[in-house]
């Protein structure tokens, strides 16, 4: 995303300036490690672009931007424990490199650091805190729903959408809403830009599920079909279940216990093609993208202010499906 | 503590009013459970008494009081995981009754709820948030130091005091400081009442260590010597090490591997008496209590306003040593 490289590297520079003490080493070393293994920094960039959308210099929203990014990193550290994930962005997760206790406490500390950044943000602090807290509550609820759904057989598509809305999309909405609050935007504009972020987030998450099975492995950077092998309840799987004939359903169930990974992925893809899963999921993604655009159209600022945010959302959603 | 029963039951009533949604059940059930198993509610009562100290009605500080109590409960849930504690206040801990993942996430949610309560508190929100965040950071540092010290042989008395200051005392200071902020007290008064809380907290924590070995078991409600059996590095143990002769030190080390619990407690008590540990630790407790009183003397409000807080601190520190 070259056109936003200036924003990303500004975020990186400011992240490095956050004061992380030396001691206790066992608490702060994992935090330093985790912040440095990177990530796309998509959320703080959204806050900065949101500030510019409403006519502010991006520097005016930097503390809120960092708060969102730090909060996101807190959720990753704790989610990785709960999901027993060994790797994050190709690096060992905190609970593996150290241990669970260290991951719990350094995650807690990161959450507090997020609030410490928010405390430094100019603007209506009560509104900022309200928006941030509401989203934080929802993210925890989404994580719990995600864990609950792994144990459940019957998960409807609307359950799934609600889960990813809470677990991942609301934070994109919040990243933008904070900028609107800082800029003293109208309540309507706050709502529209929040919704824009949530819809982009939903489209993006659906695309993630699609890419896992249908991406060009050379461009995607990892082997496709990981979700299929892990029997994950992705939107593809749920759409397949909902649209399968009895016979196709039997086949789908049989495939879940197939031990040969390559064969499993190949046959699942074939079955999904029969059922038309790819088109249905792409339609769904485009539907949310359309809703996002509609929300952006309603934001009452000059069109030229909307260019970058529209560009970034288009870019995000054209990753080689 | 009958003279503060009205405060405690007010806190209980208001705690019950905090909206805890039904769903996801797996997230909110543990929170309901944990809030209902009780505790002394000492911290929120301090906030309410702090408000009255500075001439405000206690109702004006209720959200800050609840924020402190909820934050405290978050730390307990996570600490219980880290310490692998099976019981809390005689009830199963969350990670035992459910599992670690549930305890991690419901703890996270409680921390966010604390910030949600703070967001509703009238007063200078930026100052409230700054004080609250600073204390939250310190509590995590204290918990990490506590875990680090379990692994280390050489822990000095000043290390230990710093650890308990961070892990437990600063929250008492913060509970009072928030009240001072709400009441727009002067910066000096804020500092004095904060220090009062911290010193009372230190005295209280030292007393806890003393009671574990020297309390009357009938009044104490549990068998004495639990810390000795678990080889915990309490202030008694550290004072013993620092004041022991070579021979006494050898005996102390030998006792750490004694398998007979009753004998171990009996002989340790005898050894501590030889070294004069009880007097030294009571002196230390009284020293911090004296410092607390000095801070209270400096708070620039009429003496009659100080009665209840002085009474409560005296009460706390006269638990049958």
Task: Give the percentage of residues in beta strands of chain A.
Answer: under 5%
Number of helices of chain A: 16
What is the chains' assembly state?
homodimer
Rg over alpha carbons of chain A: 20 Å
How would you write the strand order of the largest sheet of chain A?
A: 1-2
Helix content of chain A: over 70%
Describe the SSE topology.
2 copies of one chain form a homodimer.
Chain A: H1 5-17, H2 25-36, H3 42-53, H4 62-82, E1 87-88, E2 91-92, H5 94-97, H6 100-119, H7 125-151, H8 157-182, H9 187-214, H10 217-220, H11 226-229, H12 235-243, H13 246-255, H14 261-275, H15 277-298, H16 303-316
Antiparallel strand pairs in A: 1-2
Helix pairs in contact in A: 2-6, 3-4, 3-8, 3-16, 4-6, 4-7, 4-8, 7-8, 8-9, 9-15, 12-15, 13-14, 15-16
Cofactor (chains A, B): Mg(2+)
Protein name (chains A, B): Polyprenyl synthetase family protein
Pfam families (chains A, B): polyprenyl_synt (PF00348)
Written description of the protein model:
2 copies of one chain form a homodimer. The first copy, chain A, is mostly helical and 321 residues long. Helices cover 75% and strands 1% of the residues of chain A.
Describe, in short, the structure shown.
The structure is a homodimer of 321-residue chains. Chain A is an all-alpha fold.
Jot down its keywords.
321 residues; 2 strands; globular
């Amino acid at each position: 995303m070259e056109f936003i490289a200036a924003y990303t590297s500004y975020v990186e520079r400011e992240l490095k300036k956050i004061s992380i003490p030396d001691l206790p080493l066992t608490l702060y070393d994992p935090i330093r490690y985790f912040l440095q293994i990177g990530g796309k920094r998509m959320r703080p960039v959204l806050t900065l672009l949101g500030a510019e959308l409403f006519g502010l210099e991006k520097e005016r929203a930097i503390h809120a931007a960092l708060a969102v990014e730090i909060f996101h990193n807190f959720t990753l550290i704790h989610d990785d424990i709960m999901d027993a994930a060994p790797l994050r962005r190709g690096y060992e997760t905190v609970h593996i490199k150290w241990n669970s206790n260290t991951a719990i406490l350094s995650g807690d500390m990161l959450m507090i650091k997020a609030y410490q950044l928010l405390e430094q943000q100019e603007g209506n602090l009560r509104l900022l805190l309200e928006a941030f807290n509401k989203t934080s509550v929802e993210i925890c609820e989404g994580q719990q729903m995600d864990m609950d759904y792994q144990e459940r057989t019957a998960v409807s598509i609307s359950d799934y959408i609600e889960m990813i809305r809470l677990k991942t999309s609301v934070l994109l909405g919040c990243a933008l809403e904070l900028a609107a609050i800082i800029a003293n935007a109208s309540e309507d504009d706050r709502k529209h830009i929040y919704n824009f972020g949530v819809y982009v987030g939903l489209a993006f998450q659906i695309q993630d599920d699609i890419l896992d099975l249908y991406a060009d492995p050379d461009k995607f950077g990892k082997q496709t079909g990981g979700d299929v092998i892990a029997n994950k309840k992705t939107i593809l799987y749920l759409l397949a279940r909902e649209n399968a004939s009895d016979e196709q359903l039997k086949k789908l169930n049989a495939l879940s216990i197939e031990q040969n990974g390559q064969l499993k992925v190949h046959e699942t893809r074939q079955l999904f093609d029969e059922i038309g899963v790819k088109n249905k999921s792409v339609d769904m993604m485009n539907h949310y993208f359309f809703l996002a655009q509609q929300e952006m159209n309603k934001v009452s600022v000059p069109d030229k202010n909307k260019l970058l945010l529209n560009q970034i959302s288009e870019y995000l959603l054209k990753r080689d499906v």
